[in-house]
Fold each of these.
Amino acid sequence: MNEKMTRKDFLSSLAFGGTALALFPWLNSCSPEKQKAAGGERARLGLIGTGSRGKFHLANLLQDPSAQIVALCDDFPLHLEEAAALCPSAKRYTDYHKLLEDKEVDGVIICTPLSMHAQMVIDSLAAGKHTFCEKAMAHTPEQLLAMIRAWKQSGRVLMIGQQRMFDPKYVKAMELVHGGGIGQVVGIRNYWYRNNDWRREVPAPQYERRINWRLYDEYSRGLMAELACHQLQNGSWAMGGIQPSFVTGTGSIQFWKDGREVFDNVAAIYQYANGVHMTFESIISNKHFGMGEQILGSEGTIDLVRGVIYSETGNRHSGIRQFLDQIAQGILSNSAFAGTSWVTEEASKDPGVRFVDNVTVNDGASTVGAAGDGSVELMHAYCLAVISGDQPAGIVEEAYWSTLLALLGDQATHLAGRVEIPSAEALGVSF
Ligand SMILES: NC(=O)c1ccc[n+]([C@@H]2O[C@H](COP(=O)([O-])OP(=O)(O)OC[C@H]3O[C@@H](n4cnc5c(N)ncnc54)[C@H](O)[C@@H]3O)[C@@H](O)[C@H]2O)c1
């Protein structure tokens, strides 16, 4: 929210429409009714992990009329000081257990490295706190199950940082998919290319693993957890909550051979029971194609990142029409039954229609962290959930699946093989 934006502007920008609310129930968590019910109350929040993402949320929450930051925690002094400079009135802790004992904190926000999420979430819920944790949810599938059990037992709110669920261009796109706008979903493509070493500057060599935790297996699941986790959610949305049956994958360290343990390029293919595939590919030594997410349908294509819908029908020919075209083009003039039988497939020339206005669309660039990516709305919804104590529907389930798909995809890339994806029923998981 910029300084000129009034509270009324801010709240009206969060109002999602009727169809979206019916299809995506978590959006009710920031509806005007919820907002009204919260009155002028503020959620009293404690932030654990004041690094890059923690400070990003902090800066947004300081602008949110429903948030009050009462405590900050980080065991790395530099990061704690940086956050304290943004919010000097908040109490400071270096041990997160102490923050969890703080009676003034009603809701906790966890922005620590992946390997710490499970224990911190379980401890936070056990301390009776409503809890928000950044994606990915967990470092292992076993941790994921333990977190779901802890959440069910606690009766507290749990939310996970999958901000696309509140991003207007994704919400609109998925409304179009569910409204039949692209016909039957026949494929889902996700890719995320970069050209940098994914390293952060380290103040002294002994801090290498702490600062660059993403590069080491002990803390991270590399590109699958950090990047794919966001994009794999497109499958769940587009397929109406149906999940893939198995994943095959491959990966390697082929360019950034600098002591890192996680792959610098991966490719994974997820297959659904009806035969549809969802792909994810990431290479971090070539960024020519940037970041892309597309839902392919029998009647059209939706480019999620650019907020554009394309039609297939302009290029569609019936069998007979195609046959006549081929005769007209002389392709079949020598023999009706031999030689080239099909016109070479061409890419569509349809310029497409942009289906969202006034939202940030960075053509081909990463939209994560960009203004309007859903992060502000997600955190506002969390504040309202802390105030009401009402669990937003569907959030944990969506986050569970995107993390599980990312973790099993990571296993597949290491095996260079196939990993089965268990159903929730097989694991005894309910949401
Ligand atoms: N949703 C998104 O788009 C998005 C974007 C970026 C990061 N993230 C996620 O946010 C999380 C954090 O990422 P980041 O880039 O901010 O990492 P970071 O390294 O910048 O920050 C992590 C912080 O946690 C602190 N920390 C580590 N151990 C701690 C402990 N025991 N107690 C208290 N603090 C501790 C570190 O000192 C550091 O300040 C990751 O899970 C990442 O995937 C999500």
Note: The CA atoms of residues 111 and 205 lie 23 Å apart.
Amino acid sequence: MILNLFIVIFFAGNCCTMKSTKAREGYPAGYLADCPGSTKEAIISNNTLKYLSIYVQGNDSLIRRRYSYHETRFLANDPDLDFGKKTMLYVGGYLDSPSFPFSTLMGVSYKSIGYNVLLLDTNYFTTMEYPRAARFMRPVGKYTAKMLADLTQEGLDPTMLELVSLSLGGQTSGFIAKNYRLLTGMNISRITALDPAGPCFRNLGPADRLDKTDADFVEVVHTNIDNFGMAAPIGHINYYVNGGEHQPGEYFWMLCTEFCSHVRAHALWIAALTYHESFVAIQCDSVQQARYKKCYDRVPQVTNYLGLKANKTVQGIFYLATTNTYPYFMGKKGLKKEYDFYTNITTTLNKSKLLKI
Ligand SMILES: *[C@@H]1O[C@H](CO)[C@@H](O)[C@H](O)[C@H]1NC(C)=O
Ligand SMILES: *[C@@H]1O[C@H](CO)[C@@H](O)[C@H](O)[C@H]1NC(C)=O
Ligand SMILES: *[C@@H]1O[C@H](CO)[C@@H](O)[C@H](O)[C@H]1NC(C)=O
Ligand SMILES: *[C@@H]1O[C@H](CO)[C@@H](O)[C@H](O)[C@H]1NC(C)=O
Ligand SMILES: *[C@@H]1O[C@H](CO)[C@@H](O)[C@H](O)[C@H]1NC(C)=O
Ligand SMILES: *[C@@H]1O[C@H](CO)[C@@H](O)[C@H](O)[C@H]1NC(C)=O
């Protein structure tokens, strides 16, 4: 009785002085964390496979040739492919298509830096309810890997093959790479996953989602980790942009919503292809530290770049500060907390004792 009373008083006392903490509030579960049955088999029939196709981007941005799964042998002879050069395969997200801007922009950007550009068309397999589309990404990965393995027989060198993927495509690229290794015994050299999808994949293990063991080098750009993206550091290098949860709005007054934050990863990568060594990221000890923007004071300060100039041997979790408008990079200012976008605004406000309007 006395003990009970003590407990009531103890907790009552605690409740009203206790600050907001994660122990009290909990952590985000993440949007659509689990999709029961998502690891069960999904089958694409031979008749439907013709919808899985790869576009080859020509020199002129308007020229692109489409090859279905059954036409891979013609794909190898496309006049715009030169297997002496590096090759980038772009894997789009939910509802995406090579005709839409995300693919087009990425294709033109890689073409301009001398790559062969392939754009995967998964539109037929993603234009349906999301959890069903997520499940179809396994066989899509398997058959795409078969196309790449057939191209390898025609001269495509996996050490010069890079996958760039957005959102659901991030998980698809994992399935492509796993199956490519099964078929050829070789690894794809690089996977760049731009805010890989969390919904239906958040709580799955390495065999059922993208993982750093899928390719020689896997980098992940996290921009919306609790909603459309994924919080786990699943790559060799994991960039948590502005903490990874949400991004500053392009138009100052407007919040960058979940979708806006999610696709920011794509815009950042496009910018990083042009502005080398401009996106400077700082290493963190944990994802939590990155979320709380607490990596600035870590000693020693270890840095890396976002983009093709990243030092692949300096791995782990990184905090990347950006501005709110294209081209987003902060250069060396990104290493100092006072330049951090919202930190700057809030500390500036804190300096005035009184606001008057
Ligand atoms: C699959 O379909 C393609 C084209 O429609 C056809 O050429 C091929 O023979 C079919 N393969 C099988 C195993 O039925
Ligand atoms: C595209 O441009 C490259 C480099 O300028 C050239 O080698 C190649 O032949 C061109 N491809 C076509 C199909 O004209
Ligand atoms: C491919 O990557 C896996 C996982 O990182 C590694 O165990 C394997 O040795 C690699 N294979 C080759 C041929 O490099
Ligand atoms: C990458 O980082 C390692 C370890 O800090 C360093 O030894 C190496 O020189 C760096 N490579 C490049 C290309 O900067
Ligand atoms: C903070 O933001 C203001 C207004 O955008 C800018 O003039 C100032 O240079 C910034 N200060 C720092 C330390 O970034
Ligand atoms: C805000 O200003 C107060 C003084 O008015 C200062 O003690 C405090 O450290 C400031 N907080 C931050 C986060 O700068």
Note: Residues 5-13 have pLDDT under 50 and may be disordered.
